[in-house]
Amino acid sequence: MSTDSALTGAIITIERFILEQQQNHPDATGALTDILYDVALAAKIIASRTTRAALVGILGNTGEENIQGEVVQKLDSFAQRTIYRLNDHTGRLAVMASEEEEHIIPIPDRFPAGKYVLVFDPLDGSSNIDYNVSIGTIFAIYRRKSPDGTRGTLADCLQKGRDLVAAGYVIYGSSTMLVYSTGQGVHGFTLDPTIGEFLLTHPNIRIPAKPKYYSANQGNVRHWPAGVQKYTRWLQGENEQKHELSLRYIGSLVADFHRNLLTGGVFYYPADTKDSAKPKGKLRLLYEAAPLSFLAEQAGGYGSDGVQPILDLQPDSLHQRVPFFVGSRDLVQKAEEFIRTYDA
Ligand code: AHM
Ligand code: MG
Predict the structure, then answer these.
(1) In this structure, are residues 329 and 300 in contact, taking their beta carbons and an 8 Å threshold?
(2) How many whole angstroms from 284 Cα to the centroid of ligand 1?
(3) pLDDT per position as a tens digit, 187-198
């Protein structure tokens, strides 16, 4: 498609692309397409606020209110409310869940309930928000399990990654990109801020065969299980020169994942003994690991908890954490092998 567009000069907006993909499903009602549009719109609004974050902070210090008379909010709650407000009234969703909210987010009674479920991490990479480092939004869309016409339930949100209908992320970096999949490959769009449109720049992303990077918070190495420590040395080239990878770690999952998707490599946040309250590492199954594993598999890669595919895990609570290894398939499988051998 990139060659085609180079030849014909076609400019493919995200709207056009999503609509064309919908045509592969003659029975589609268009609801999923519309949810994706709404996510893209939320991304534009959040991107615009993100680029002005420091200025908004200055305004915030003066106690300034925004145009609706609301006190200027922190970026993460702004992102949360933006996604919620664009999706609460559309009649497309049965229920939502967000990393920012303890419980499921019901659709208000005054609006109709729809057939899809939206699960999201509105602004991931919170430790980087204040420092002009890339951050992101992650989203996942399921079909409801509860009967149509009723309000959605917790069980609607606690679905296996295998049941995902669509997933994606937005990265707010040197440019803003939206990358998503509906199970027909992974496609990336870059926001042209001068026209306010996401344009197709990365059709059909495949993880390159030869990986370049490994990404983990190596400051935690002494808290990692022995197998993960040995795996890290293997990635660094111990015993097998051909696996000498460079280390890149941003500390924003979306940014680390996005880079490794394009370059090949592995990201991991294993279980560790650093904090006894978090024996399964830091990252969340629902909002982070499942959607990114869906994208990884669609791009020829793999996501695992170190033992089995993330997509096969049945969530038992909204904010459940999980050890997470994701990226090039053979590198993730190698992590499973080390864990099986040394940590089982
Ligand atoms: P958050 O949901 O509070 O933003 O935390 C998730 C982030 C991920 O983006 C990133 O991969 C990880 O935390 C980094 O954690 P650490 O600072 O421990 O390396
Ligand atoms: Mg997060």
Answers:
(1) yes
(2) 10
(3) 999 999 999 999
